[in-house]
Amino acid sequence: QVVLTQSPSASASLGASVKLTCTLSSGHSSYAIAWHQQQPEKGPRYLMKLSSDGSHSKGDGIPDRFSGSSSGAERYLTISSLQSEDEADYYCQTWGTAFRVFGGGTKLTVL
Amino acid sequence: EVQLVESGGGLVQPGGSLRLSCAASGFTFSSYTMSWVRQAPGKGLEWVSYITSGSTSIYYADSVKGRFTVSRDNAKNSLYLQMNSLRDEDTAVYYCARETVHDYWGQGALVTVSS
Q: Which of the listed residues A17, A89, A100, B41 has the most CB atoms within 10 Å of its CB?
């Protein structure tokens, strides 16, 4: 079974950039993932699909400030020019036949 | 505009049953795999089940297997989750989501299992 590992928390200053990491378990480094954002008291919102080669396709209306990249078993979400509304929980997710799995989420604080 | 609207949540006693619905609009519902995902209070997202476009393949998380049943009615653009033998740990907000990557989500329906 695929396991996705995320750091529980991250922080960065308003206007700065931050890079969040999602790590795929051993033997699963070829998997694509999706990133989702969940602002406080709201439902999740799809950000992008990110493939193992770093190519990504974003959801409707997702600003250019959000980008994705990959290296080996690591999948990254970079948010540039941080805004207050970027303070949220960020989840990575992957899939296969018969399963979907989410990482534990990273709580991003904008200072 | 793609919209997913869940309904049917509420308070139920342990051992009871509840049926959630998800009404879809703004896209060709019959062409898409659909999922249920839940979130317990203060916790992360947990996948529950998915069903393929023609209902030919259905899968469940181990935590709900044998107790929950997912179904869909493509003529009514609707997705369902029948939840039986509910436990305290099933208390959560339940979301329906579209496709493998969950590119659209509903607003969620709160299910509270408590005596």
A: A100
Whether B99 and chain A come into contact, CB under 8 Å, resolves to no
> What confidence tens digit (pLDDT) does each residue in B59-74 have?
999 999 999 999 999 9
What the block records as the tokens of A66 is 């959000």
3-state secondary structure of A84: helix
CA distances from B28 to A8, A97, B3, B53, B78 (A): 37, 23, 11, 10, 11
B30: which DSSP letter?
G
Retrieve residue A75's tokens.
């999948």
- Closest among B104, B108, B94 to B34, alpha carbons compared: B104
Burial zone of B58 (CB within 10 Å; 0-12 exposed, 13-18 middle, 19+ buried): middle
β pairing state of A106-110 and A88-96: antiparallel
Our CA angle for B18, B8, B110, nearest 5°, is: 90
- CB within 8 Å: B47 and A59: no
Cα–Cα distance, A1 to B47 (Å, whole number):
14
Q: Give pLDDT tens digits for A73-88.
A: 999 999 999 999 999 9
Instruction: Please provide the average confidence, as pLDDT, over all residues in chain B.
Output: 97
User: Can you point out the beta strands (E) in chain A?
Assistant: 4-6, 9-12, 18-24, 33-38, 45-50, 56-58, 66-71, 74-79, 88-96, 99-102, 106-110
Q: B57 with B5: CB under 8 angstroms?
A: no
Nearest CB neighbour to A95, from listed B95, B100, B105 = B100
